[in-house]
Amino acid sequence: MAGQRTISIGPLVGLAGGVLLFVSLFLDWWEGGITAFTAFEVLDLVLALLSVGAVVALADALGLRLPGGSPARARLALPLGAVALLIILTQLINDPPALVGGDNGPDLGMWLALAGALLIVAGGLLAVARISLALDFEQRERRRAEAPGAAAEAPPTGSEAPTTRVEAVDPGPPAPGEGPERRT
């Protein structure tokens, strides 16, 4: 497989965060077996919708074509993650009404939800900044051919031969007096 492939890091990070946030809702958020679904009345559903919304927004930016999607939808992940992060931080600081009077500390689900929201925010920032990882398979094949002991192998032929990519550069308009030659 030769060629260069670009993988966007932002959507990958954000997708991992969205899935982590959604899964954390089913885990214990507070000691004593209290999940987000048992502690909250509405916030659990809001967090579930925020996580699914972030996953859908970032999936299209990763190249998974969804109906009615557009790459600009990845920008939604940042505010969705920020709202989820705000909700989780407020619940970390102030226990929900179901826990008032109890001595329940935060448990694994709460920390995973916090990490998931942070990953959604980070993925949204990276997606907006358009930071990506480029993998160059041609370079890897060239290094393998130049490695010691590779001389015993037969030289590559046809489509196996390493290629050099040449990119055309537009020099721009000619400077005054440097136009094409005039015939007189």
Structural notes for this entry:
With 184 residues, the chain is mainly alpha-helical. 48% of the residues lie in helices and 8% in strands. The protein is built from six helices and four strands; from the N terminus they run E-H-E-E-H-H-H-H-E-H. The chain has helices spanning 9-24, 36-39, 43-62, 77-93, 108-129, 137-146; strands at residues 4-8, 28-30, 34-35, 132-136. The strands form two sheets. Strands 1-4 form a two-stranded antiparallel sheet. Strands 2-3 form a two-stranded antiparallel sheet. A hairpin with a 3-residue loop joins strand 2 (28-30) and strand 3 (34-35). Helix 3 (43-62) packs antiparallel against helix 4 and helix 3 runs parallel beside helix 5 (108-129). It is elongated.
Which key phrases capture this entry?
two-stranded antiparallel ribbon, 6 helices, 48% helix, 184 residues, 4 strands, elongated, mainly alpha
Write the layout of secondary structure elements.
Layout: E1 4-8, H1 9-24, E2 28-30, E3 34-35, H2 36-39, H3 43-62, H4 77-93, H5 108-129, E4 132-136, H6 137-146
Antiparallel strand pairs: 1-4, 2-3
